[in-house]
Amino acid sequence: MKSETDIVNAYTYQLGPGRHILYFGDPMCSWCWGFAPVINEMLIATQTKSSFQVITTGLRPGVLEPWDDQLRGSIRHHWQSVVDKTGQPFDFARVDDSGFIYNTEPACRAVVTVRNLKPNATFEMFESLQRAFYAEGQDITTAETLSEIARTCGVDPATFMKEFNQQVTQDQTLKDFQLTRIFGVRGFPTMLLINDQGIQTLTTGYQPWKSLRPRLEEWLNT
Question: Which end of the chain is more exposed for a tag (fewer CB within 10 A), N or C?
């Protein structure tokens, strides 16, 4: 059986030479939604200088029961904190839905599905899911909603659904969750920087672009 170090080494070897940014996040993580504008700035700054990989983290995978009043209150508090810190838009009506099941696995699997079918649209799908859930109040735990969002990212809904429902895609999503733990990621969003000198953490948790930009530029120029 491979050790966790072996798995990390195998993953980084698969990425190949050069610079790589690993983004660990969940489409249904509110601070990841707050971080979305920072990611877009980062993508502009890095462009051809580095690859950018999205690894879904499984914030709350496999949940079967509706959220209770205590969790809804906690979620509302977190969402308001993100609004205050980042200015990102939120539709708080979702928190009033006492029957909502906060299962993040389907949304994560939707990102993996698009990553398989149209890799260059992976973050577009990730951000579109965030916007649909947080700003528009959509239920992104349903396959029908996910396939429609995939359509807006240039993926045929029928093709999406076929790939989304395959066992291999479910297994790949679980592998993302496992990689998150193996890389030692405990908070979201997290960004790791990889080059031939090793792995370093750019951030664990939200930080504004002005704080991250100098460190990222230093890494790109060394």
Answer: N
pLDDT tens readout for residues 25-34: 999 999 999 9
Question: What 8-state DSSP symbol labels residue 218?
Answer: H
Which of 141, 150, 143 lies closest to 101, judged by CA?
141
3-state secondary structure of 38: helix
Cα separation of 12 and 20, whole Å? 9
DSSP secondary structure letter of residue 28: T
- Burial classification of residue 84, based on how many CB atoms lie within 10 Å of its CB (0-12 exposed, 13-18 middle, 19 or more buried): exposed
Q: Reduced to 3 states, what is the DSSP secondary structure of residue 92?
A: helix
pLDDT for position 126: 98
Tokens read off for 67: 């959220």
pLDDT band at 90 (very low <50, low <70, confident <90, very high): very high
- CATH number of 4-220, picked from 3.40.50.170, 3.40.50.150, 3.40.30.10, 3.30.750.24: 3.40.30.10
For residue 114, what pLDDT is reported?
Answer: 98
Rounded CA separation 204/183 (Å): 12
Measured CA to CA, the distance from residue 3 to residue 210 in angstroms comes to: 37
Domain locations in the chain?
Answer: 4-220
In this prediction, residues 12-29 reach a mean pLDDT of 95
* pLDDT, position 49: 95
Identify whether the C-beta of residue 111 lies closer than 8 Å to the C-beta of residue 119.
no
Strand bridging mode 20-25 / 51-56: parallel
Q: Which amino acid is at 18?
A: G
Please, which residues bridge with residue 22 across strands?
53, 192
